Amino acid sequence: MEHRGAPLDVIARSLRRERERVGLSLSELAKRAGVAKSTLSQLESASGNPSVETLWALSVALDVPFSRLVEPPRPRVQVIRAGEGPAVYSEHAEYVATLLASCPPHARRDIYLITAEPGGKRESLPHSPGVVEHVVLCSGEALIGPTEDPVRLTPGDYISYPGDLPHIFEALVPGTSACLISEHV
Amino acid sequence: MEHRGAPLDVIARSLRRERERVGLSLSELAKRAGVAKSTLSQLESASGNPSVETLWALSVALDVPFSRLVEPPRPRVQVIRAGEGPAVYSEHAEYVATLLASCPPHARRDIYLITAEPGGKRESLPHSPGVVEHVVLCSGEALIGPTEDPVRLTPGDYISYPGDLPHIFEALVPGTSACLISEHV
DNA sequence: ACACAACGTTCGCGTTGACGAACGCTCCCG
DNA sequence: CGGGAGCGTTCGTCAACGCGAACGTTGTGT
């Protein structure tokens, strides 16, 4: 079959990497997963287009989440100081979102640091469907959540809500900041 | 083939759900994805074991992350007040981790609220491999990161590091709190 | 040195996924 | 009423995935 850009080579590398990390031989893993070792051999050499059943069995035998075999790995250690990092300014100047971590390609979650001042009610239009946002309030006080039913949060409080609904972030006191995780389910 | 517990029915439901949410007909989606509509029809009726290529093409055409088709959906809105939620106490009483969000099955990330007081150096043994931790310091000051190379963080700072390396969380001033995301890559 | 075991690869073969064509169905328009 | 477009399903064909068996290679022990 012609390749459509699917991560067959990524799968190959992931299988090899995970298998060696666990310390299993190709034969051993094949036996545990109930897969012919010839099949596994071909998959690790990126010659083949595995079925979901097969790949699923391997992910179970390796005890890694399924998506770990399909998506490429990501970097290791990273530090972003307060004030550094790419900032996303709102139409209101009182609101700044700093992107702390994203995971391309086919991002699964982004982490933002939000700082906001009172007065600027920040209404977010619905994002692409399948997004869930998690917010932990760090300091100050804010009204956060779905627009038709927001919640008043104080430091340490947590809320999560669907990102494909309209939602708001309204700081109630100066110096309000929060950690926001925007996640693709 | 005999089913190995693979999420074929989950895939079927996910395909149907995502397709209808986007508002595409079965024929239309098949055309856009470059997949025979007969194939797609069989997949949505859970009779079949798609190859990765096929499912990948569908995920691209639907513009959803691949794993969204393989894993079942999760709940919607949730609030946890500061002090509520399941707490994970350390051997040192000065350290409390509150679990805010986890995502079974085959968890991909957990979100914790950490509160710690000075004096209790919290050394974490390496977790299962493939884990990455993200920390955003909310208040106070702390020494966080890989044990052999920790970083001094102040409020708003961010760090991420591999969870399969030994790492520490040492509060330097009273009332230190942080948001910790423990993530399976 | 030889036998043996374990590893990873390669080689036919049966099964099955993916395809295009044809089908029944509903709806819409002339 | 009849034709046509669109929908989702079913049917036959071909390619390819997954399998077991056999192979060459490496390392071990008696």
Automatic annotation (TrEMBL), chains A, B:
Keyword Transmembrane helix listed: no
Keywords linked to the UniProt accession: DNA-binding
One cellular component (GO) term of this entry: cytosol
Membrane is among the record's keywords: no
PROSITE patterns in the record: HTH_CROC1 (PS50943)
Domain of life: Bacteria
GO MF term list: DNA binding; DNA-binding transcription factor activity
Domain HTH cro/C1-type: 15-69
InterPro entries associated with the record: Cro/C1-type_HTH (IPR001387), Lambda_DNA-bd_dom_sf (IPR010982), RmlC-like_jellyroll (IPR014710), RmlC_Cupin_sf (IPR011051), TransReg_Diox_bact_type (IPR050807)
PANTHER family linked: HTH-TYPE TRANSCRIPTIONAL REGULATOR (PTHR46797), METHYLPHOSPHONATE SYNTHASE (PTHR46797:SF1)
Stated name of the protein: Helix-turn-helix protein
